[in-house]
């Protein structure tokens, strides 16, 4: 970890990065909503194309020609329907009301302020916008400012800003859809390894590499053992990759505090949701947000957690 040049230091102050966090948070709202939708459309299109292979269907299913033609015909219709959907990317089309399609003006899109000016409702149809939009923006701003205050004008600050943006997107997407996109997980892994390699953070490259290996391997082993005992998966592969990415970013030493914190909070929340009858026992509870919470705690309080935890285990 090293300090940035004096001319750049002023741009890494809490106030400046807090304002940047508001803007990044606004973009993260777009990523959280659109990225899983883009992935699902891509998967549907790929599935439709795959299911139109009649020779594969006949080999794989051993089905009669009539049944093969039925499946291929359905897949062809699915593909056509998928292709007919309007194109969607992170930049196009412009933000609009999900209820009436009203395209938001620039002043309606201002982070937090736009939502407050509209009083949380569309200016055209008066349908409510979720309060989560300004919450994500304000939380990103607060985390960016805290990183600037905690780590100062250093290369570590730049790394952790990017990491926090990725973590917020991962947590919210998993909360909404139980998906942890590979693209975001791999970006976080690459960021952690590159930062360690270039000495942008206090984590050494061997510690980052071991964090990646142990993070993935430990959750994979737990999930495999659970499947052998219970006959079903207790955790998805995206969680393995997210834990591995946190290990690459923060080092293998932080894996135990992260998993203990996230498991404790996840258990409390899960029990509450089941007992309050708001969540069926058979419905999976996304673990990604709890891993992210544990990772953020380790980012800001990692040294204190290590000093507290490991002596307790040794004793």
Question: What is the percent of helical residues?
Answer: over 70%
Work out the radius of gyration: 23 Å
Give the uncertain stretches in residue-range form: none
Extended strand count = 0
Average per-residue pLDDT, rounded, comes to: 87
Strand content: under 5%
Q: Report the major sheet.
A: none
Distance between the termini: 33 Å
Which H/E pattern describes the elements? HHHHHHHHHHHH
Number of helices: 12
Estimate the global geometry from the Cα principal axes: globular
Return the structural class: mainly alpha
Offer a quick outline of the entry.
With 315 residues, the protein is mainly α. It has helices spanning 6-9, 14-51, 54-61, 65-84, 113-117, 132-151, 155-177, 182-197, 205-230, 237-250, 255-275, 288-314.
Explain what the structure shows.
The structure is a single chain. The protein is mainly α. It has a domain of 161 residues. It is 70% helix and 0% strand. The chain has twelve helices and no strands.
Q: SSE layout and pairings?
A:
Layout: H1 6-9, H2 14-51, H3 54-61, H4 65-84, H5 113-117, H6 132-151, H7 155-177, H8 182-197, H9 205-230, H10 237-250, H11 255-275, H12 288-314
Helix pairs in contact: 2-4, 2-6, 2-7, 6-7, 7-8, 7-12, 8-9, 8-10, 9-10, 10-12, 11-12
Main features:
mainly alpha; 12 helices; 315 residues
